[in-house]
Automatic annotation (TrEMBL):
It comes from the Bacteria. It comes from Methylobacterium soli. This is Putative addiction module antidote protein. SUPFAM superfamilies: lambda repressor-like DNA-binding domains. PANTHER family: SSL7038 PROTEIN (PTHR40275). GO terms for molecular function: DNA binding. It holds the Pfam family dnstrm_HI1420.
């Protein structure tokens, strides 16, 4: 019998380019939970405890905020993105 382990995107987010592309792709989906989950994957890849500390947030609070279905505040998203060294940009739609 073949056993499979659950896919963990954070294992593949090992460069600035991969992180930027992953978050940009998540933003293309109309479901905001997908972006929140992607941001959580990136924080996990970088070390959730360190990200929480640098963002001035509790580790458990950050885990809860980056869980799909949470009503994460923009302020929290912004703090995490600043710590991760990524930014949101706006461009004209197609």
């Amino acid at each position: 019998m073949t056993r499979f382990t659950p896919f963990d995107a954070s294992e593949f987010l090992d460069s600035e380019e991969a992180i930027a592309e992953y978050l940009a792709a998540a933003l293309q989906d109309p479901d905001p939970d997908l972006f929140v989950a992607a941001l959580g994957d990136v924080a996990k890849a970088r070390g959730m405890t360190q990200i929480a500390r640098e963002a001035g947030l509790g580790r458990e609070s950050l885990y809860k905020a980056l869980t799909p279905g949470s009503k994460v505040r923009y302020e929290t998203v912004r703090k995490v993105m600043d710590v991760l060294g990524v930014k949101l940009t706006v461009s004209p739609g197609a």
